[in-house]
Amino acid sequence: MSADNEQEVELLAVHSRTDVEQVFHYSAGRYLNRFLTEMRDNAKIVGVKCPKCGIVYAPPKEICDPCYAEMTEPVEVGPEGTIRNFTILRAPFVDPETGQAKPVPYAFGNVELDGAGSLIQNYLLTDDDSKIKVGARVKIEFHEKRTGNMRDIKGFRLLD
Amino acid sequence: MGKRAAIIGTGQTYCKSIRRDVNGQELINEAVTRALQDAELTIDDIDGVVIGNMDHFEGINYVDCWSIDGSGGYMKPTMKLCTGGTTGTTLGIGGYHMVASGMFDKLLVIGWEKNSESDTTGAIVTATDPILDRGVMAGALAGLAIEASEYAAAYGATSKDAARVSVRDRKHACNNPYAHLRKEVTIEEVLSSPVISDPLRLLDMCPRTDGACAVIYANEDVAEKLCPQPAWVVGTSNRHCYSRFADIKGQTGMLSLTTAAKELWAKTGVKEPLKEIDVMEMYQPYSWGGLIWFEDMGFCKKGEGPKYIWDGVTDMGGECPVNPSGGVISTNPIGATGLIRCAEIAGQIMGKAGDRQVPDVELALATGFGGCFWSDMILYSKNKPA
């Protein structure tokens, strides 16, 4: 069959939508369990330190990727940090977590909290987008009501 | 060491944003039919099939089973490979491994995508960590934007430098009948297109495309009998590093790619990539990648990418033309995109690249990009490796 006759026939598409809500239940795991609990109960960011290279991962995880070493030593980091990279997202798209359109535009970036060696990703909060730069200083802000979820973090407020 | 192996035939579909005229199986078969024709083989000559796409785009999970009619895999050994954006080059590497093992003589390798069938960014977000990375992350677009922000801050490259890469690729695409976007753009048009994720503008980015690609690999027992000029694999490398986007730290360069390049050059004896590689098809989904990743592979020093791009080194007629096909900025059916790089390079080596042919190609590179900044590289040659 030739594709060249596309203009001549009506081309049908069958639309599928998930009318039945399909919910996933992801185990936080041992490391994120402590991380999320500390954040919820004490508004603290607690990472974990690699015994071989000394990098502190916040959020924590079991294994340091380059060293393939098990990490056990908890280390509190932040609450201030430095923007390492960022963007201001303006293109609309659907949030697969909610099925709703994302409220663009919004600024987000990866921040190296003081004492951490990995980055943490979240919204960048400011009234003046021109302040958002690689190297700018920020402080983490939490929501008043926290449930043990990354969404407990409101974002990183730009410091002057 | 295994057997030497080569691509002996390729087939691509024509590409557009919505190929409403075909379903997935028909699209796949369009590429398969052309690859078999190109290699002057029939499906009966094929020993096995490997197929890949990014299954969350179409929401069809058992693609290897579902597509068996279109792929020609009925009652043949068939399997699926999927590694996200790198799917196409993983197919190129995995297919090579299978024929080089000697267990398959002639293998059909297929990459495809009907990107139009779902929300691309929403689907890509499901590839990231469900607890940590989905709250604010926005798929490939935002991941690339943050890389550009870091590179610009470190080396002072500008949006205008990046725009020159889009101008190059879109110009090249005009020579490629299979390209999706076949219209030249100017620096001014790129710089005045809407900002979609700072600093990226619409014309810095790849489109979403419906399309498919198939290649046929053969090993040294049969390749030269079946094909007057096989595209021999000289070496491959690939690296995965991070599982979380936020762990991609302070890189100002793509760690997986610098490491993969180092390995590939060491394995194949390439000392000066810019001088020795005759043409490259780069998985470069956004303009800034044409600066950053060109440097990361050692084609020039860090920070010097813009100078080389402005000097025309990577244009058609330059020292090392990049993306004669128009590249990913012009055509991006994601699961096929990496395999199109391999097919285009094979076409260059076979002398079948038509209006986009680079003269006297002996050594040529295909690359793949995907996931949390993962990298694949495949070096092909006109000459059978020693």
Description:
The complex is a heterodimer of chains A (160) and B (386). Chain A has one domain (26-158). Chain A is built from 1 helix and 10 strands, in the order H-E-E-E-E-E-E-E-E-E-E. Chain A has one helix spanning 29-42, and strands at residues 45-49, 56-57, 63-64, 69-70, 73-77, 80-89, 106-113, 120-125, 137-142, 153-158. Chain A has a 5-stranded mixed β-barrel with strand order 6-7-8-10-9. In chain A, strands 2-1-5 form a 3-stranded antiparallel β-sheet, covered by helices on one side. A two-stranded antiparallel ribbon of chain A has the order 3-4. In chain A, strand 1 (45-49) and strand 2 form a beta hairpin. The longest helix of chain A has 14 residues, at 29-42. The N and C termini of chain A lie far apart (65 Å). The mean pLDDT of chain A is 89. Chain B is an alpha/beta fold and 386 residues long. Helix content of chain B is 37%, strand content 18%. Chain B has a 9-stranded mixed β-sheet with strand order 3-2-4-7-1-8-11-10-9. Chains A and B meet through strand 6, strand 7 and strand 8 of A and helix 6, helix 7 and strand 5 of B.
Low-confidence stretches of chain B: none
Number of domains of chain B: 2
Give the CATH architecture of the largest domain in chain B.
3-Layer(aba) Sandwich
Query: So what's the oligomer here?
Result: heterodimer
Whole-number radius of gyration of chain B? 19 Å
- Most extensive interface between two protein chains, with residue counts: A-B, 45 and 49 residues
DSSP strand tally of chain B: 11
- Placed side by side, the strands forming the largest sheet of chain A appear as 6-7-8-10-9
Helix content of chain A: under 10%
Short summary:
The complex is a heterodimer of chains A (160) and B (386). Chain A has 160 residues and is mainly beta. Chain A is built from one helix and ten strands.
Question: Any key phrases for this structure?
Answer:
heterodimer; A: 160 residues; mainly beta; 5-stranded mixed barrel; 3-stranded antiparallel β-sheet; 1 helix; 10 strands; globular; B: 386 residues; alpha/beta; Peroxisomal Thiolase, Chain A, domain 1; 9-stranded mixed β-sheet; two-stranded antiparallel ribbon; 16 helices
